[in-house]
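User: Sequence in, structure out. Go.
Assistant: Echoing your sequence, followed by the structure tokens.
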Amino acid sequence: MIRIIAVDDEQPALRRVEKLLEQFPQVHVAGLFDKSTACLEYMLTEPDRIDLALVDMEMPAMHGLELARRLRECRPEIHIAFLTAYEEFAKDAFDVEAIDFLLKPILQNDLDRTIRRFVKRTGSGDEAADQPVRGIAVQRFGPFNVLTENGDMIRFRNSKSKELLAYLHHHRGKPVSKAQIIEVIWHGQDEQRTQANLYTTIYQLRKDLEAWGLSDLISQTKTAGGSYSLHWRTSFADVDSYEEEMRLFKRKSSLTHALKAVQLYGEGYLSGSGYVWATPRQAELELGYLELLEAIVHVYVRQQRYDMALNPMRKWAELNPLSGRLHAKMISLLLLMNREDDARSYYEIVRDLLDQDEEASEFDFRRLASEPLRQFN
């Protein structure tokens, strides 16, 4: 499947492109944007791959060529095709290695040519594009999900079966005692009833997995009160990929690896699941995520790309709502973007929020306005 986004400040043109793309069975429309900033924010946070971006040349806030360059910086693997009503932009389009140049109004044949060019350049082909990914894929950033080698999401009969599988996977194949499982998943409930619940849940979980062709994944031992362990080979695990990108970022100080890690992290480890046992791991991974956000912000500020720094700065500050130091950075960034009114409004809100906090004394608006870059040194 070819995942495509389109960016055009004209809504009718955007809707037309969407309708035309929907005629291609091998295409998935992953996003439509009428603002360059919204597109960039999406690309910085979206964990899934994007294969091709259809970018309008003439947009008010940011020219399509600049947007294309920024998209390639945060997603080096992405391919670009430009949409425009002006032929004179064609040479510039190919200077940024655009895969195609489509003159408005866009026709079905135009997009057919673009998609064929994409297939030829990437060597994916229709058959390769639809080829299933082999092996189990596990997603733990956001809700816990397991995908089969054919890309189908496994459905569970009840929430406890799903939680038990997540808990066993959380332990990376190590045996987990029955007593520990009962304490964690059925905490505070009647002991005899929880024993029965465990056996029923294990049985149901095995049946759920077998229904998707996954057998003999859960091992059981009867020594020392009994334990269970999960043994499977995964073709993709988002947490493992995130940690690998973190290692590469620390070794190479590479912005590309930092951005990839942020995309993988999404909303956080098992976010929204309500699994209390996941809290320590959530906190551990969040510390690394904060480190990434800080690094990205400082790189963009050094490059004077303040608009690109805003989204990671916002996420960084939201995760530390009582940090006067981080709010001072946000105010300074808004000042560097020449958004003094927004900076002052933000300052007034934060000052009230931190009124009883000792960090509130760490910043003064006049001082921040006189030396906004000082916060990033």
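User: And one key feature?
Assistant: Residues 161 and 205 are 5 Å apart (CA to CA).
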